[in-house]
Amino acid sequence: AGNFNFYNLVASRGIVKLNANGSIDSSFNTGGGVDVANPISSIDILANGKVLLSGFFGVYSNAAHAGIVRINQNGSADETFAPRIGTVGAVSDIVTVSASRIIIVGNFSFVNGVPREKIARLLPGGLVDASFDPGTGVNGEISAAFLQSDQKILIAGNFTSFNGFGRDNIARLESNGSLDTSFDSGEMDEFG
Q1: Global confidence as pTM
Q2: Are 65 and 40 in contact, with CB atoms under 8 Å apart?
Q3: In this structure, is the dihedral angle defined by the CA atoms of residues 121, 125, 127 and 132, taken in order, positive or negative?
Q4: What are the phi and psi torsion angles at 109 (to 5°)?
Q5: Is the dihedral of CA 108, 114, 119, 120 positive or negative?
């Protein structure tokens, strides 16, 4: 997945499934793929074989899917998963927490009408998990997230605070979305 229109001279807008030898798997049909002007930034293959795609796109397979879509093994959109990020916003990374929950991060302020500043945890159908509450979140954008073995979440991006606490570009959250105040990387300059 990425920012391309063709794979081996075959039209494949933003996503293609390959066989073990590198040839295109013709059973995988995206029905038009994504708008590659706004590409896919993250892909996560789930245990059930479905795939989560996130990025800056607003359309997948000629239907509205702003920032995130779950697709079936044949490439069709899984319409039982329907988070609505809105027309403005992007999902830059996905973290699978469990079979029933995922965390999304990016540059958005609402998910399904619920205020969530740049991070949210979703239930299987794409609804917001209310038990994960990041409060006012970050004052910038989150570009990456990582789930630790203790279920705490590391986030990184372009921000200087989380929920009003000074945090330069990196923070660690508790499993409920609150800030882990025992983790503070200190100040970072533009060169890291």
Answers
A1: 0.85
A2: no
A3: negative
A4: -120, -15
A5: negative
